[in-house]
Structure formats: C-alpha cells, structure tokens
Design brief:
This protein is an alpha/beta fold. The chain folds into two domains: 227 residues, Aspartate Aminotransferase, domain 2 (3-Layer(aba) Sandwich), CATH 3.40.640.10; 115 residues, Aspartate Aminotransferase, domain 1 (Alpha-Beta Complex). The chain has twelve helices and 15 strands. An eight-stranded mixed sheet has the order 1-9-8-5-4-2-3-14, with helices on both faces. Helix 4 links the parallel strand 2 and strand 3. Helix 2 runs parallel beside helix 8 and helix 3 packs across helix 7. The two termini are 21 Å apart. 50% of the residues are buried.
Length: 360
C-alpha cells in the first residue's frame, strides 16, 4: 500500500494552468500579476487590510519584528509549545526570548502572559495558534494593549481558523501565514505577512526587496533581505487559496473520523468557545499508551506520525533562556501525538490507522 504521510500537499488542479500563464508572461521572479492576485485573495479571505507575499513564515515574523523596532536588549515573549520558526527571528534581531507555557487548550496561557509582562517588560509577544486551533487571542491582545506590548500572531498552522467569525492572524499588530509543504495550503515554500497598518506593510515590503532606494542605480540607506515570494510560487498559492474552504472542511471531517474510531483513554486537542479551528493536524494525548510504541507500529505499516512539539524551553539551544512554565507543555510532549491528517485521506484510511492504534 502507498505510504500515508502526516500532511502531504494536495493540489487543486488549477496550479499548472496558472504556472503556465506565469511562464508565458516570463515574469517568473518576485514581480508579476500572480503575486498581486495571491495577496489580494489573502486579503479577501482573511479580511486583513494589507498582505505581503514572502519566501516563508519565518521571514514574515522577522520582518514584523524589524518593522516594530525590536532589537538588541528588547524582550520578546513567545509560546514555548511551538515550532522553532516562531522563535528564531527573535535571535536574528539579537533580542531576548522569554518562553511562556500553555493552558488547558494547549495554546499560550493568558494568565502567564500577564505575569510575564509584569516581570519582563517586553516589547512584543509572538503567539502561536497551535495545530490550527485558536488561542485565547482576544483576551491576550487586550492584556498586551494595556501594557503597550505589540502582538505578532504566528498563524502558520491556522490559516482558515476563526474566533467569533474573525480569522486567525488578524487580531494582533501583524499576522503570519505559512505555505510550507505540509501546511493546509502549500506553495512548496512560502509565507504571508498581514496587517491592518498599511505603513508597516509598505516598510516590510521595502525591507523584503533588499531595501533598495528609489533610484535607477542600487542605492541603500539601510540593509534589507531577499524575502519576496516569486510569481511562480504565488501562482500556486492562488490556486490553493481558491480551495481553502474545502480543505478546512476535509481536515475537520478527518478529525471527526478519528473521534469516531479511536478507543481508550485519549484526549483530543480542545477547541475554545466560539472558535472554529482548521484542524491542520489531528492531535491527541494517550493516558494508557506509549506514544513511541504507537509511532513505531504505524511506521511499520507505512504510516507517518509524530510526537507533539518539544517545548522550546526544553531545547538545548535555549537551556539558559528565561521562561514561565507550569508543566502543561512538558506533559503534552510526553503523551501527545500528531496523526496523519492529509486531505487526500478517506474514511477507510482513518479507520485502518485507528484500528492499528486500538490494538496496541
């Protein structure tokens, strides 16, 4: 049988048509109509006022920090239970990360955020909407606004998720989406920076194209980066964004199938009130199974799975970093697993995976 991957790309069928148009136009670099169209459809879909297509989500977070003036000596609070891409840009700016643990919904804990603001006087917070599920973003933005702390939403995993009908990535000062190969939509590699502040997005755009001044020659008053998305990748992105609603529906359907078929003492990642996650990955914890036994059995049957994120405060590279922890993310790492959630899966595939797990 074919290998079942964790979250493989799923093309809509329009990608090659749009790529052909790009090649016919010969605008294959970072200029062209599909870059504009991809940004426009992102704004239309998420209701963000401004959008900037970039090479990846990490670059988007980096630009957000740079535009907000975060630099050496500044403290940036960040989710501990996340992927390192949420954190590495803090180091690019020579700022200091402080890791904040999770609450019962697995996302960053608002109470710990409030404690950390009082203790560390941060300039910004990077908040992850983990595994496609909304964090308590409204409460956290309110806390940060009162303290004058900028909020960057890492919505890399949560494109299409909403809270009270408002899209992830549009609550804070900046939002960041990822189009990596394993995300709900993919451009093979890519990212998007969104904000309601047009001036900030224009500054980020300037920095993303090597900070070239408006002269016929190359003139630079500051340094920038080569972070702009190509027209080729944007063409793929447009075709992908056109099917976002279908992909979210299928991801949530796959989650419901796991709920139907899995047995035993398990807990799925919860969904907070008035939210609708995209269920990018179906994630859960076992009380009566060793996750590495489960991963091993699935792997022997050609099925990819993975432990939950190892918290950043447990990573060797951050062993000396400040943190406010409560043990939640450490327990989740010990007991949690990500199951195959690709939108190419059928109900019988999920049933087979569940039966293998149930028999361990």
């Amino acid at each position: 049988m074919d290998k079942i991957f964790l979250s493989p790309p799923h093309m809509s069928g329009k990608e090659q048509e749009y790529i052909k148009n790009v090649f016919d136009s010969n605008y294959i670099t970072s200029l062209g109509e599909y870059v504009n169209k991809f940004e426009d459809i992102t704004k239309t879909t998420t209701k963000a006022k401004n959008a900037l297509a970039l090479i990846n989500g990490t670059a988007a977070i980096h630009l957000a920090l740079r535009v907000l003036g975060v630099g050496e000596g500044d403290v940036v609070l960040t989710s501990s239970f996340t992927f390192i891409g949420s954190v590495s840009s803090i180091l690019y700016q020579k700022a200091t990360p402080v890791f904040i643990d999770s609450n019962e919904n697995w996302n960053i804990c608002p109470n710990l955020v409030e404690d950390a603001i009082k203790k560390y006087k941060p300039k910004a917070l990077i908040l992850t909407h983990l595994y496609g599920q909304m964090a308590h973003i409204e409460e956290i933005v309110t806390i940060c606004r009162k303290a004058g702390v900028y909020v960057i939403e890492d919505a890399a995993e949560s494109l299409g998720a909403t809270l009270n009908g408002k899209h992830s990535g549009t609550f804070g000062d900046f939002g960041v989406f990822s189009f990596n190969g394993n995300k709900i939509l993919t451009t093979s590699g890519g990212g998007m920076l969104v904000s309601d502040n047009e001036k900030w997005i224009q500054e980020a755009k300037f920095l993303s194209t090597q900070a070239k001044e408006d002269h016929i020659w190359y003139e630079h008053e500051t340094y920038g980066y080569n972070y702009r998305m190509s027209n080729v990748l944007a063409a793929i992105g447009l075709a992908q964004m056109e099917v976002l609603e279908d992909r979210v529906f299928k991801k949530r359907q796959i989650f419901s199938w796991y709920q139907e078929f899995l047995e035993g003492n398990i807990t799925f990642m919860p969904e907070i009130a008035n939210s609708k996650g995209n269920r990018w990955l179906t994630t859960l914890t076992f009380e009566d199974k060793n996750i590495f036994d489960v991963i091993d059995v699935l792997n022997k049957n050609g099925i990819e799975s993975r432990p939950l994120w190892k918290p950043m405060h447990m990573q060797p590279v951050f062993k000396s970093s400040e943190r406010i922890v409560n043990g939640v993310s450490e327990k989740l790492f010990q007991k949690g697993i990500c199951l195959p959630s690709g939108t190419v899966l059928e109900k019988e595939d999920v049933k087979r995976i569940a039966n293998l797990i149930n028999n361990i």
